[in-house]
Each structure stands twice: as C-alpha cells, then as structure tokens.
Specification:
Organism: Variovorax defluvii
Number of strands: 2
EC number: 2.5.1.-
Radius of gyration: 20 Å
Distance between the termini: 74 Å
InterPro entries: CblAdoTrfase-like, CblAdoTrfase-like_sf, PduO-typ
Family: Belongs to the Cob(I)alamin adenosyltransferase family.
Protein name: Cobalamin adenosyltransferase
C-alpha cells in the first residue's frame, strides 16, 4: 500500500502523471484515473446530498455508502488489491428491498425532479452510472474484481429508489413524464367513465 498523504501540494503531478496506491505512476488521463475520479465525484455528490434534510435511516445508509466508495476508490488505485467486501453488496441489496417495498409501483418513467434532496439523489444516480461505465471500460483493459462494478450498478439502482423515497418525505410524490401513452390511457379512462 502506498504512503498516506503528508502533504497535498507535492508538484509530482506537474508532468501530467499521478501516483497510484501501489506507488506506480500513470498518465492522468488513464482509464484507472478516470474511474477513480468518477467514484470520487460520486462520493462528493453524496456528501452534498447529506447537506439536505433526509430521514435518519437514509442518512446512516448514505454515510456508510461514502465509506464503501472510499474503499472502492482505494481498490481501484491499487491494482490487484481487494478492499470492497461482499457485505457491502449485501447492504445495498437489503436497502433496495426495504425501500422498494414501501413504494408504489411505477406507472411510467419519472423525471429526475421533486425536492432538492430527491433531485440531488438523481444527480448521484447519474454519476454512479458514469462511474460504473468507467469501471467497465477499465475492466476491459485490466484485471479487476467484480465487486466495484457490481457495487456501482446496485448503488445507482438504490439512488433511484432513494430519490423516490425522498420525494415522499413531506407527502410528495414522483414527478411523472407526460408521455403520450399515459395521456391516451387517461383520455380512454375518462371517456369510459362518461358513458
């Protein structure tokens, strides 16, 4: 494992390279650095989401997710090393099942909107998907454990579900896409009720 940071401004990156956790240096546009950066950005946006009022259970879950994302980023920075454990995936699966059970079925696609907290959860979801794509791209060129890719995939699903949960905190609801299919179904239902 690489040394812990003792200073931030080292100037060693001035040549366009960065150090990995195993003390090797790679170009800053390397796929591994992209993946690490996307995971870091996701973690930062979850920190922003935590600035919003969210239920205590959701807050505790997201704080733990931040720690797991730090492990995930560490694993990406140290080729061949494992930091993300299987119980991290199980925690996401359990949270998905718990929160999904409390939500009504979707009638149509929803917009990434609603309360500030829900909208920020949607931002986190999209960054999680980008981080997942970066990890997949890296995995096509380097050997990676499955857990980072699986974690990001499950996390993006959970963030979608949490956005729906957060829209309901004060009695709100999903913001549905105004699709033509829904409009026709509503018109047909209204016409059937007029007979």
């Amino acid at each position: 494992m690489g040394n812990r940071l003792t200073q931030i401004a080292t100037r060693t990156g001035d040549d366009g390279t960065t150090g990995l956790g195993d003390n090797t240096r790679v170009p800053k546009d390397h796929l591994r650095v992209h993946a690490m950066g996307d995971v870091d950005e996701l973690n930062s946006h979850i920190g922003l989401l935590l600035c919003e009022p969210v239920p205590d259970g959701v807050r505790e879950l997201l704080v733990d997710v931040q720690h797991q994302l730090f492990n995930l980023g560490g694993e990406l920075s140290m080729p061949g090393f494992t930091l993300l454990k299987a119980d991290a995936l199980l925690q996401l699966d359990s949270a998905l099942a718990e929160h999904n059970a409390a939500l009504p079925r979707l009638a149509e696609f929803i917009l990434p909107a609603g309360t500030r907290a829900a909208a920020q959860a949607h931002v986190c979801r999209t960054i999680a998907r980008r981080a997942e794509r970066s990890v997949v791209a890296l995995g096509a060129q380097a050997e990676l454990n499955d857990a980072p890719r699986q974690y990001l995939n499950r996390l993006s699903d959970l963030l979608f579900v949490l956005a729906r949960v957060l829209n309901r905190v004060d009695g709100g609801d999903d913001i549905y896409w105004k699709s033509e299919r829904l409009a026709r179904a509503a018109a047909a239902a209204a016409a059937g009720g007029d007979e």
